[in-house]
């Protein structure tokens, strides 16, 4: 394999992603795990940039780090006091969870094995095209319009549900 | 003008054509100036990375100087507003006061709360500092000055990076193991996450008109003088500018939205426990952020480096960009020393019940405007300015009649 600067940076990002992902599942302290997840998400965003998906990378950061992780941390900090949590696991859950994880792992490994040249798309000399236009056209064409609309309706339902739950009951 | 601002000193930057400006810089500027024996063996990739690092280094070296000036400016402005003189002792008219303060901060003890989380406590200032500097990478300062990362998702990248700052705030607040810090960081997180929505939506109106996310494209589309600046292009972007500006004041946690640092309630908010240079990092990041959001506002709505008249350099180029940006910074200071702090419920009401619906209305209106008028139609700009003028007069009259009450006669 040709060892260029790009492969060096790529494996740097891969290492950051995997190491921090391992930290997320092994660290006892929930807040530490959440911040390790932030590093993982950044690593994945870096890998997206390597795949010429700059818009996806920025979306990843803005949605997961700026939105979801902040909410996770909010939840954790509001309920702090039991940070060093020992999680009790039943045997049935262990079997079920292990089975599902194993199936997912197999699926991912097959995808990885069947994808040619997935680490260095920027190397083959093709110009870096803006992906925003393509994404916009795909989402607003017939191809992905229905899933897009369904997802937006789902989010709207979640929004209304959250507003309903958090709203004070007014009785007179 | 020094040579560095002149055209042709830097190669044309064009990522859309599949090249990288740093590679161009190595090929067109560095290699021709090397002795011939070395030039043939110059490693392009390593050179590209080194050039990128060098430009990043310029930013890391220059941007901390901004707070040095802005902090002094803030103190002088505050003094003027309160009929004082401000710092006068260090240097002529107190101009070296911030430098003295900085030196004092360097020599202070770097205190780490023993009950806190040491790793996260040490890490938090760096996250905030790095993110507020990374924003500068995509700001277009002038026509001949290369943007370190001029990619086609410029403004989206800025939003993504600045949304990470809140993680640093939460990290600082939680790891300090102090009630004030935790409360401050919770307030800050809630505020930033909320105000990101009207901010993003008002940026979207600009993106809809320009049809690009790239900062350079946005500036280039405002090249025809003051009336083609995006703020005057439609009545909706005029409203969007003010929503953007107010929301960005909330994003950088300044008065009247400084609940996360409300001195009278929670000491200093998320950085209560920090001292010495780590505190200085927060301080520098705050003022760098202030400059950055003003620069983004100038780029998006006030023409960036484009001048007031087409073809003339008045208020254009790099000096014009800085003057406009500092103007917005002065507006922020003006608001800070004029308005009292909002309550939490007022803050949330303003965001969720006023700004977000108005922003949605803006997006709808911009879309309809784009359907009716051709791009860069002279008529559309004329009609837009007329609507803005009538709207302002109307708002002034209505506000004058209804909102401003005459003081009730005092019993003598």
Strand content of chain B: under 5%
* Overall outline of chain B: globular
Predict the CATH topology of chain A: Four Helix Bundle (Hemerythrin (Met), subunit A)
- What integer is the average pLDDT of chain A? 79
Q: How much is the radius of gyration of chain A in Å?
A: 21 Å
H-E order of chain B: HHHHHHHHHHHHHHHHH
Q: What distance separates the N and C termini of chain B?
A: 65 Å
Chain pair forming the biggest interface:
A-B, 28 and 33 residues
Principal-axes shape call of chain A: globular
Helix content of chain A: over 70%
Overall tally of domains of chain A? 1
The class by helix and strand makeup of chain A works out as mainly alpha
CATH architectural name of chain A: Up-down Bundle
Q: What is the CATH C level class of chain A, in words?
A: Mainly Alpha
Number of strands of chain A: 0
Helical amount of chain B:
55-70%
Low-confidence stretches of chain A: none
Averaging pLDDT over every residue of chain B, what do you get? 79
Number of helices of chain A: 6
Alpha carbon gap, first and last residue of chain A: 75 Å
Structure description:
The complex is a heterodimer of chains A (172) and B (412). Chain A is mostly helical and 172 residues long. Chain A has one domain: NADH-ubiquinone/plastoquinone oxidoreductase chain 6, subunit NuoJ (Four Helix Bundle (Hemerythrin (Met), subunit A), Up-down Bundle), CATH 1.20.120.1200. Helix content of chain A is 74%, strand content 0%. Chain A is globular, with a radius of gyration of 21 Å. Chain A starts with a helix and ends in a 6-residue tail after the last helix. Chain B is mainly alpha-helical. Chain B has a domain of 288 residues. Helix content of chain B is 64%, strand content 0%. Chain B is built from 17 helices and no strands. In chain B, α5 packs across α14, α6 runs antiparallel to α8 and α12 runs antiparallel to α16. The longest helix of chain B is centred in the middle third of the chain and has 32 residues. Chains A and B meet through α2 and α3 of A and α3, α7, α8 and α9 of B.
């Amino acid at each position: 394999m040709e060892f260029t600067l790009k492969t060096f940076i790529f494996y740097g990002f891969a290492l950051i992603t995997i190491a921090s992902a391992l930290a997320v599942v092994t660290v006892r302290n929930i807040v530490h795990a959440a911040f390790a997840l932030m590093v993982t998400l950044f690593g994945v965003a870096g890998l997206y940039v390597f795949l010429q998906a700059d818009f996806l990378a920025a979306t990843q950061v803005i949605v997961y780090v700026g939105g979801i992780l902040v909410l996770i941390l909010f939840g954790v900090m509001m309920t702090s006091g039991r940070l060093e949590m020992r999680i009790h696991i039943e045997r049935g859950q262990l079997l079920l969870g292990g089975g599902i994880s194993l199936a997912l792992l197999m699926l991912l490994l097959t995808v990885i094995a069947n994808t040619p040249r997935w680490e260095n798309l920027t190397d083959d000399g093709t110009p870096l095209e803006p992906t925003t236009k393509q994404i916009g056209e795909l989402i607003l064409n017939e191809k992905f319009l229905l899933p897009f609309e369904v997802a937006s309706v789902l989010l709207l339902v979640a929004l209304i549900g959250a507003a309903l739950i958090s709203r004070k009951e007014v009785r007179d | 003008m020094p040579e560095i601002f002149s055209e042709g000193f830097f190669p044309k930057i064009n990522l859309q054509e599949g090249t990288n400006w740093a590679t161009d810089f190595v090929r067109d500027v560095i290699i021709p100036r090397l002795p011939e024996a070395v030039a043939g063996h110059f490693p392009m990739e390593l050179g590209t990375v080194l050039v990128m690092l060098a430009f990043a280094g310029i930013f890391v070296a220059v941007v901390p100087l901004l707070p040095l000036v802005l902090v002094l400016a803030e103190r002088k402005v505050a003094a003027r507003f309160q009929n004082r003189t401000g710092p006068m002792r260090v240097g002529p008219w107190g101009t070296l006061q911030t430098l003295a303060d900085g030196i004092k901060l360097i020599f202070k003890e770097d205190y780490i709360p023993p009950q806190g989380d040491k790793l996260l406590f040490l890490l938090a200032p760096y996250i905030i500092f790095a993110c507020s500097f990374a924003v500068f990478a995509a700001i277009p300062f002038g026509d001949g000055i290369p943007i370190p990362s001029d990619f086609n998702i410029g403004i989206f990248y800025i939003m993504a990076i600045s949304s990470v700052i809140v993680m640093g705030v939460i990290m600082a607040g939680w790891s300090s193991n102090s009630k004030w810090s935790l409360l401050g960081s919770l307030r800050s997180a809630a505020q930033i996450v909320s105000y990101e929505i009207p901010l993003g939506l008002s940026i979207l109106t600009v993106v809809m008109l320009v049809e690009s996310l790239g900062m350079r494209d946005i500036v280039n589309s405002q090249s025809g003088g003051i009336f083609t600046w995006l703020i005057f292009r439609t009545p909706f972007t005029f409203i969007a500018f003010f929503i953007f500006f107010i929301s960005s004041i909330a994003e950088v946690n300044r008065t009247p939205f400084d609940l996360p640092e409300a001195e009278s309630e929670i000491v200093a908010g998320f950085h209560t426990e920090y001292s010495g240079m780590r505190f200085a990092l927060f301080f520098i990041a705050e003022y760098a952020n202030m400059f950055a959001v003003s620069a983004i506002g100038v780029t998006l709505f006030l023409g960036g480096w484009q001048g007031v008249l087409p073809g003339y350099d008045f208020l254009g180029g790099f000096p014009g960009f800085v003057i406009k940006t500092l103007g917005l910074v002065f507006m922020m200071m003006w608001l800070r020393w004029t308005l009292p702090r909002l309550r939490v419920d007022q803050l949330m009401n303003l965001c969720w019940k006023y700004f977000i619906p108005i922003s949605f209305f803006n997006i709808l209106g911009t879309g309809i405007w784009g359907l009716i008028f051709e791009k860069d139609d002279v008529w559309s700009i004329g009609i837009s300015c007329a609507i803005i003028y009538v709207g302002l007069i109307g708002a002034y009259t209505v506000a004058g009649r209804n909102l401003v009450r005459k003081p009730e006669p005092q019993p003598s």
